[in-house]
Structure formats: C-alpha cells, structure tokens
Amino acid sequence: MLKSKKDIKELIYNFSSRFGIGVFRRIFPEYFAKEPLKPTDRYIEYPFVIRNLPKPPAKVLDVGCSGSFFPLLLAGFGYEVCGVDVREYAIINKIEFNDFKFLKVDIRGNYFNDNYFDAVTAISTVEHIGLFGRYGMDEDLGGDKKAVAEMKRIVKQNGVILLTFPFGKAKILKPYTRVYDSNLVKLLTDGLEIEKEEYYMQNNEDDWYPCPRNKVEAVDANNERYPLCLIKLRKK
What we know:
Elements: H1 5-16, H2 21-27, H3 42-52, E1 59-63, H4 70-76, E2 80-84, E3 100-103, E4 117-123, H5 143-154, E5 155-166, E6 171-173, E7 177-179, H6 182-188, E8 193-202, E9 208-210, H7 213-217, E10 228-234
Parallel strand pairs: 1-2, 1-4, 2-3, 4-5
Antiparallel strand pairs: 5-10, 6-7, 8-9, 8-10
C-alpha cells in the first residue's frame, strides 16, 4: 500500500523510466534543474562551526549527528571526534573511520567524564530535544536546557560549545522545533559566556544573508522558514 504522494511519484518515475528522458523532464522537472539548488541552512552553520573550533587534534563531541557527514569531515581534519544521537549512524556498520566513534545515546544522559571534550557542537539539534514525536524523543519541554547543561559539564574549562538553532518570536512548533528569542537563549546558555553570535535570514529567493538580532527577533517563524542563530559559548 502506498503511504504518501512521494511513494506514488516514485512509482510513476519507475514506470515512466521505460520511455526515455523526455518523459522525465516533463514529470520530474526538479531532477533536471537548470540552476544549482538554493543553499540550505547547513551552508551557513558548518562554516561557522569550523571557524570557531579549537585547532586539531582537539577532542570534539558532535550532538545529533545521525544523517550528517559533518563529524566525519572533522575527523578528516585531524580532530578526535565522537558523535552521539538517539538514532543510528548507519555507515559505521560498514566502514571504520579513524578518529571517529559513535554512541547511540541521549545527550541528556551521564555518559562522559567531567571536563573531557575541548569542544561540543550541536547543529540544529537542541531545538528538537524533548519534543515528543520528533526523532523518537520523549516529552520533556526542559530537555534542551538539560542537554546544554550536560554539554557544559563535559566540556573542559575554557572549552567551547557551538550551537545553531531557529530564532525569532519565541514559540514551540510541535512536534517540529522550538524557536528561541533572546530571553530563551539566556536561559539556555545559563552559566556560559556568549563569546560570539551571528544571525541570518532568508530573502524571497531563499538566499541567506546576515541580519542584526533585533530584526531577526521580530520574525514570526514557521515550520517552512525561520531565521538562524549561531552562537559560540565559552566555559569559564
């Protein structure tokens, strides 16, 4: 039984493939785009994180890494990387990577020693932690704060925590994400020094551009479009 429009479209794709590329162009124009796809938020987040990490061979924990190549990229740069997620990181079942290990655990648990990592990264992750139904999470509306508190515990003195998340008028878009404002960021990062922060929005063509915080904070975000906050925290 077909479960979604995507399944139906895939069935049509498989059937029409017998009749040549001309049919493809008419039915599946998104696969024959004349221009490159517009950048996603990862185009903004990954460079920010890399710019603000300590130099290798630092120990880095990447939180919420499932489905991301980013921790493998860091390992390739010479970092000693550990990734954690409540979901699987399937590629490690087939291939071993130097300087990278994965643990299928919840960051809110007590799995690491105090002051162990030089840096912790969480790219578009904290906003989902504790929202029921999202990535298999349980209902824990304070889960994001617990996660950051755990990051604070396990990062070394003078170590850094790098977070990215939606920003604008504060709300919870269940079961998808939280949107933070300045007050919620202050609560989320309690006990940590905010060393650097950047804010970005999308224009009508979906291109990202930097914005001042006050402009971003006035945006009424939704599931499809939201500004970004990228923040560097220091444990003193």
